[in-house]
Amino acid sequence: MKKIYVILSMLLLLWLVSCTDNKEGTSKINTTIIDPIITEKAVIIKEFEMDSFTNIVDWKYFPEFSLKNIEVNEWDTVRLKINTTKWVHDITLDEFNVFAETPEWEVTIVEFIASKKWTFEYYCSKPNHRKNGHWGTIVVK
Question: Computed from CA positions of residues 104, 107, 113, 119, in that sequence, does the dihedral angle turn out positive or negative?
Answer without folding.
Answer: positive
